[in-house]
Specification:
- The structure is a single chain.
- By secondary structure, this protein is an all-alpha fold.
- The chain contains one helix and no strands.
- The longest helix has 12 residues.
């Protein structure tokens, strides 16, 4: 698991919306 994966997931969700 890479550090900051949560931030990436949140950004992806934000972009997906």
């Amino acid at each position: 698991i890479l550090p900051g994966w949560r931030e990436t997931m949140e950004k992806y969700h934000r972009e997906a919306l």
